From TrEMBL:
The gene is trmB. This is tRNA (guanine-N(7)-)-methyltransferase. It catalyses: guanosine(46) in tRNA + S-adenosyl-L-methionine = N(7)-methylguanosine(46) in tRNA + S-adenosyl-L-homocysteine. Pathway: tRNA modification; N(7)-methylguanine-tRNA biosynthesis. Transmembrane segments: none annotated.
Length: 237
């Protein structure tokens, strides 16, 4: 057990503390289409931690509410949401470059211009680039469940991370999670219920029906045909 309460405190004391990551960096190969989309669209839609804290009005050219999605995979549902809500701005964060390329390619094809992308670690994006009380909605759909018990500590939904998310939400802002692993859904529910600043929007104090704003993925549709469940959680700050 480390004597320091956080990695920042350890760094200030000149010590390095290894942090547990919720993802494994997989270096998949880019298709030619993905690579070309990155080359064309990254100068327009790409963001980096090196750019520092975002001025959202300057980035998007308007004052529309902002949704942040963490771990958008190949980005198809994120692009669909951005296309369906032109009066809302979207920021996507994904560590896997092929997913970033696929998302940019889909955004280009749909003519979406209210979307920006980070190819970075979401924790660092939140800490270094997103101002407190600036996000209207945060969504995390189907994060890695790390289903083996010994790996549960790697799950992204943990009390400290939720505190960071809440800090970035405006009062009245929404935290929307979804998973197809019941054990993870129960874990998510426990963690969110334990945060005093969050209120469950479920009429039954557990899960909500899938909101129409969250498109079904092909993976989700395939799972439903096999009888797999999906659990959505919506909490309000």
């Amino acid at each position: 057990m480390t004597q320091f309460k956080s990695a920042e405190e350890a760094a200030a004391a000149g010590k390095y503390v290894r942090t547990v990551r919720s993802f494994v960096k997989r270096e998949g190969r880019l298709t030619k289409g993905q690579a070309a989309a990155i080359e064309r669209q990254w100068p327009v839609m790409g963001l980096s931690i090196a750019g520092g804290q975002l001025d959202l009005k300057a980035v998007f050219g308007n004052d529309h509410p902002v949704t942040l999605e963490i771990g958008f995979g190949m980005g198809h549902s994120l692009v669909e949401m951005a296309h369906n809500e032109p009066d809302r701005n979207f920021i996507g964060v994904e560590v896997h470059e092929p997913g970033v390329g696929a998302c940019l390619m889909a955004a280009e094809q749909e003519g979406v211009n209210n979307l920006r992308i980070y190819n970075e670690d979401a924790v660092e994006v939140l800490k270094q680039c997103i101002a407190d009380h600036s996000l209207d909605r945060v969504q995390i759909f189907f994060p890695d469940p790390w289903h083996k018990k010994r790996h549960h500590k790697r799950r992204i939904i943990q009390p400290e991370f939720v505190e960071l998310l809440v800090q970035k939400l405006v009062p009245g802002g929404i935290l929307h999670l979804a998973t197809d692993w019941q054990n993870y859904a129960e874990h998510m529910l426990d963690v969110l219920n334990a945060n005093a600043e969050l209120t469950n929007l479920s009429a039954t104090n557990d899960y909500v029906p899938r909101p129409t704003t969250r498109p079904k993925t092909k993976f989700e549709q395939r799972g439903e045909r096999k009888g797999h469940g999906v659990w959505d959680l919506m909490f309000q700050r």
